[in-house]
Amino acid sequence: MIQSKRLITTISVISSAGLSALKFIVGIATGSLGLIAEGAHSLLDLFSTLITFVVVRVSSIPPDENHPYGHERAESLGALGGMVLLAVTAVWILYHSISTIIWHPGAPEITVWSFAIIMISLLVDFWRVKSLKKAAAHYNSPSLASDAEHFGNDLLGSFAVLAGLFVIFLSRYITLPLWLVNRVDAIAALGVAFAALKSFWNIGSQAVRSLMDNVPKELIPSLNKLIEKQEGVIPGTVETKLRYVGNIPYVEAVIGTNRELNFEKVHQLTEQIEKVISKELGTDAVIIIHPEPKAAVNEPYAVTVHAIADRLGLRIHNLHVYLVEQKIWLELDMEVSGLLNLAQAHVASEKLEKALIKEFKSPVHIKVHLEPLNEKPYEAQIDHHLKSEIQKVVQSIDKDAILEDVLITDHGIVLTLTLPLPDDMALFEVHATMSAIERKIRAQIMDVTKVHIDPEPLSKYPVNG
Length: 465
Known about the structure:
Blueprint: H1 5-30, H2 33-59, H3 74-102, H4 112-139, H5 142-170, H6 178-211, H7 219-228, E1 239-245, E2 248-258, H8 263-281, E3 286-294, H9 301-311, E4 315-324, E5 327-337, H10 342-360, E6 364-373, E7 380-382, H11 384-397, E8 402-409, E9 412-421, H12 427-444, E10 448-457
Parallel strand pairs: 2-3, 5-6, 9-10
Antiparallel strand pairs: 1-2, 4-5, 7-8, 8-9
């Protein structure tokens, strides 16, 4: 069962306070530098766990206006602060250990309490390491991982002190070198100091890496490859940034997308990328995808032209691309406001032409037909009488064509037709058939300005029999 961060830190604070007091009392009473060093170490454990006790509460505060990423980094700051205290204590223990070994050797008094307090310390630290490691993995908590590492090294220091006490105890019954007996307790204290310095280095460097947004060097290239596998992303255009705030990954990725994709398709693509990143990093990941339209290799000319027009905010249609003597010819219709005069409209036309020439980087012939854009609906009326007359003309041109509507506008007559055609007819044949019908209608009815033909599969029109 995984205990809560608050419960574990509370128990750890109480046990650190108790162990520190017991070690100091027994160490001072017996004159054991090893136990005094362990007491100092446990006192530092108390400060460290108090820091952890505070930061796990601060880190759980939800994001606010001043902290949009939340308060999770309080744990890394707490771990770093605890390690600074640990380093100071380790240096103090080193100084007194070396001083005892060189200038003031002497064996401390050994009692049953000397062994008892170390055994209790070993049991408590073993429980703390086990509980903290489970909780740190479950909550992905740097401060709990810091304490687990810390108390794991405490175990090594306690074993060193226990070994020193055991050597002194044996000297009562067997003859051991006097230089060893008088210095083994201080040597054990050295073990405590080195264990503390090891914790300082491991946990301190980890906290610094967290605060400096350090991530494993292989992680971002791995994410880039994962993103580039998604259909619609242009290879070589992905740039990803990743940081961890506490245990939550924040991902920002810039992707290049095919310029032929519309907004809806690009949105679907970004959602798909968010899903694969969340699957890789965890469902708590906060992901921002910034798509940028990019020219794909061997991009169709029509896609390029429409992309440039869209970028300039221009509306074009009826685009035709020809290859004439190895030179690209472009012919298109561009819609401009009907309120503009020719000179003003021509400025927009030249703007498009210059952008296309720059984009293609090769000789290109461009002809732009200007069409007025009416941003308001045209006034129109349905003429039922005229419809019956025009229907006869349409039937004479193509007996399957169905005249749906005849609209009378200020600009002329607008016809709407439905044309049933074989289901398997190629689209270019469909277009050619409709164009031929339109030409014939215009030739016979002079006032027609627009012919809309809607092709429908013949299978939708059952044969009566």
